[in-house]
Specification:
The protein is mainly α. The chain has a domain of 29 residues. It is built from three helices and no strands.
Length: 62
């Protein structure tokens, strides 16, 4: 009986398919959710709020 063979086999972690699936799902969400959030808020923003109102001295006097 060789102890080196049994310890080498037990040192390897078991392969978990569900762990790879969950990891892949987390990676995809991490990449896609910020992209969709940026696109959503960029398209929904009001560009008129970003344009400055020109100064006019006539409006102040009236």
């Amino acid at each position: 009986m060789e102890s080196s063979e049994s310890s080498a086999n037990s040192a390897e972690p078991p392969s978990h398919r569900w762990a790879r699936i969950v990891g892949t799902a987390i990676a995809l969400l991490t990449l896609t959710v910020p992209t969709f959030a940026i696109a959503y808020y960029s398209l929904g923003s009001n560009n008129e709020a970003l344009t400055p109102i020109p100064y006019s001295s006539r409006q102040i006097g009236n």
